[in-house]
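Regression test case RT-17, inverse folding.

Input:
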């Protein structure tokens, strides 16, 4: 997911521990990290951005756990992960085209 946002020059961060991941899309990220951002800022992603991400992924068969977070598990095969990454990239491209986020 980090590679996708870097490849498309989207300002944001993908982070988490173990099997949990979080996504932050915002111009105030430095070096792909949310370090130094408070919880209020991280949770303050515009609702339109959250909705675009959630609906874009959902129509491609991926449902986030909540807000901009998800979980992977041993039940997910490599094919599942590949499909999810493709859905994420397609959603990022759609969000750029629709003007929800900056990037290329």
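Golden output:
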């Amino acid at each position: 997911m980090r590679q996708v946002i870097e490849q498309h020059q989207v300002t944001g961060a993908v982070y988490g521990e173990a099997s949990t991941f979080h996504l932050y899309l915002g111009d105030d990220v430095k070096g792909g990290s949310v370090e130094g951002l408070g919880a209020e800022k991280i949770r303050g992603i515009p609702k339109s951005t959250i909705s675009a991400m959630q609906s874009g992924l959902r129509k491609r068969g991926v449902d986030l756990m909540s807000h901009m977070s998800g979980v992977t598990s041993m039940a997910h095969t490599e094919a599942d992960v590949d499909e999810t990454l493709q859905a994420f990239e397609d959603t990022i491209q759609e969000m750029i085209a629709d003007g929800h986020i900056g990037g290329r």
